[in-house]
Each structure stands twice: as structure tokens, then as C-alpha cells.
Write a structure and sequence with these properties.
The chain is of the alpha+beta class. It contains four helices and five strands; from the N terminus they run αββαβββαα. Helix 1 packs antiparallel against helix 4.
Amino acid sequence: MARRGFKIELLGEERVAARLVGLASGIQREATASTGIAVEAVKAHIVAGINSPPKTGRTYRKYGPRRDHRASRRGEWPAGDTGNLVRSLYADVEAGMLILPNLDAADLSMSVGLGEDLMVVGIVGAAADYAVPLEYKPISRGGRPFMRRGLAEARPEVRAAFMLMRGKFGQ
């Protein structure tokens, strides 16, 4: 009995390849947009927390400029005074073939892998000199974690940003 075979020929493979490249580019664009929404949501929660009243710690006099300052208590967001901590906050998104950036101890990072070398990385950080001790010092010794708390409070918005992206690509 003779074997009968069949042949499959893909017509227009250049169009298929171009469409796949376009799809990958669309996914990267959406991942970048979703990551941008996520890091801005985290930053917004941090700013709102630091700027939110009331702070119920002790009040003491500060100089340069002379003013009274009310500190935060354990479990509260850091008490803003000069606005330096809020001004030092940043949110950034990088996409492409990345080597992960050097992260400072005060940076939160979230990343989306899109293949072997293609990544989208979102970073929220604070450049103020005292941000790292404020974030990581034990609460009993004056630490007031604000980055991780901001991330925890923004979690529903972060999840929604990525679920929206996922929904656009039918997965």
C-alpha cells in the first residue's frame, strides 16, 4: 500500500511574521501603559498618606525655619514637615531589552516579563537622604514604612491596571 502524504504550505508568511511583531509591540505598549498606571497609583497613595492628617505624635520646636512640628506615632504615615520627602518621590517606567537597573534600598520595583530579554520595569522611589531609615528602621525606633504601605494600599489599583491589559489580549 502506497503512503499518501500531504503538504501544508503557509501562504503569506511575511504577513504572519509582521502581524506577530505588531502584536508583540502592542503587548509591550500595553504593559508599559499598565505599569505606568500602577507606579503612579502607588506614588499617589504614598503622597496622600504622608499629607493626610491627623498626626498624633508629640509636638516639638524645630529651627531653620523656626516652627512647631507634630510628629507621627507608631503605625501612622510619616509626618510631613518641609515637603522634602514628598518632593523626592519618583515613579518611572522603562521598557525594552533591559538589564535591571540598580535599585536603591528606597525603591520598590515591579516588572513584567515579555519574553526572554524583553521587560517592562516600574520603579517607585524616594531620593530623600532619610527615606531608607524611615522605611526600614524598626517602628519601635522611629521607623515609618511608607513605600511598602503605599504599595499595599494601591494593590487593587495595580491589579486592575494589569487585568485591563490582560483583558485586551484575551487571556
